[in-house]
Design a protein that fits this description.
heterodimer, A: 221 residues, mainly alpha, MetI-like fold, 10 helices, B: 244 residues, alpha/beta, Rossmann fold, 4-stranded antiparallel sheet, 9 helices, 10 strands
Amino acid sequence: MSFYDYAYLTSNDAMQFVKATGVTLYITLMSLFFGTVLGVLLGLVRCSKNRVVRTLPLLVIEPLRNSPLVTQLFLIYYGLPMVSRIMLDPYPAAILALSLNTAAFMGVLVHNSVSAVPDGQWEAGLALGHSRVSTFCHVIARQALRLLVPQAITLYISQLQCSSLVALISIMDLTKLGQNLALRTLRPFLVYGIVFLIYYVISSPLAALARRLEKKLAFHY
Amino acid sequence: MAMIEVKNVTKSFGTLTVLKNFSVDFTQEGVTVLLGPSGTGKSTLLRCINGLETIGEGDILVNGRSVKEKKNLREIRLDCGMVFQRTVLFPHLNVMRNLTMSPMKLLKTPQAEAEEKARFYLDKVGLLSKEKSMHNELSGGEQQRIAIARALMMNPKALLLDEITSALDPEMTSEVLKILENLAAEGVCMLCVTHEMQFARHVASRILFMDKGSLVADAGGEEFFSTIRKENERISKFLHFIGE
């Protein structure tokens, strides 16, 4: 690749990259926020002592984590208007699909992290006079967080990458912009190389943060 | 008046009945030792008193409050501090926070007061120098001594001790038993499940012998080891088997 190749990209394209990065970050952050809130709720309900109550979140979690995200995205964007009056624009459809998908995986992570705390910790808290809620807040949550945080960050990185699927419903995110520019310039290596680097620059600090938090939160039973 | 009244309690795990129509009273004085072979319901009895296990039939009253009523559990657990066989210090907190967290959250004790009290009890269990240690920096015996101090921080009227030395080596066991002997001498009321016969001999004011979920003998410490063991073949066999 020579300097000549870069000349295929104009300063306007550079602005397009900045904008598309913003779109990718916006969709990712919104869906991670809603997905995390819903996922934590689903995960906590999964930890209920009542068998019926703790089974309910599975009705949401299982279909979502056992089907491809792209199918969920198409179902919401193309499918919903066929069976209801709900016709979502690409952005809300993308955020909804990614949020639900994130929530399903986050729900599993929360449940697994809480379940991994030894039963003796619950009993020790209860035996001291704490209620179940108080034991959860003061004893269990912090220990579950140690397991949850690094895994959640890995999920976030994965969802950032999955956000590239929104290109399939015409959202001008990084991947969609890459497609358009590659077609126009006929320099796919150059264009996708830049797209690759931008994803990498966003993701790698998160991966480093996950490793750091894992060490910081570590303790031994 | 009895502090703990166990009334015709039956407790089963599936098809296995661990406590059979079991009744006994405990007053708030001295050290009561629960003896008996493994699997006879001793630990289950303590867990039922503390409300960690639900009971099938019968009832347990602690200071007149039924363990069957959920709303009573907090008060019951504050009255009956419990220390477990396997040490369960909170691994994310250092020793000081392990001791002060519950009084501060539940009894609303101010931090400075809680820390002062924690130092008092740490001194009592001989671990004042370990206040900043994490649990993995402590030996098993030290962890159990911290767990005893943590239970005492809640001002319990009685301590329920569930085989707290069974996972410790002889040296650590003697460390923990010494602390219990000191507490007993200070008049702390204890209800303990143990296989430590020397401890039972020296400290127990009352001994209950359980077998297959039923109470076989209920006697004073000296009486148990002198008279009862000779009269009761099952007890004699048990004590002989564990080298007494």
